[in-house]
Write a structure and sequence with these properties.
By secondary structure, the chain is an all-alpha fold. About 75% of the residues lie in helices and about 0% in strands. It has helices at about 1-35, 40-50. The model has no long low-confidence stretch (mean pLDDT about 80).
Length: about 60
């Protein structure tokens, strides 16, 4: 009976992990497919990243 219980939990855990991986891939794939229709999602992230660094003056370039 112990082997059957261990096999059940291994199978359940592997299925849950695989399901989470598939879910993450599906969500990120959908976001990449529809990124042209929702540019505000990416614009906020780009503004945040670019504001972390100070701007260089023309002479420093």
């Amino acid at each position: 009976m112990a082997f059957r219980r261990v096999l059940f939990w291994v199978h359940l855990t592997a299925g849950c992990v695989a399901g989470l991986v598939i879910l993450v891939m599906s969500v990120t794939g959908a976001l990449l497919a529809y990124r042209r229709f929702y540019p505000s999602l990416y614009l906020v992230r780009l503004l945040f990243v670019f504001q972390l660094r100070p701007l260089l003056q023309c002479l420093a370039l």
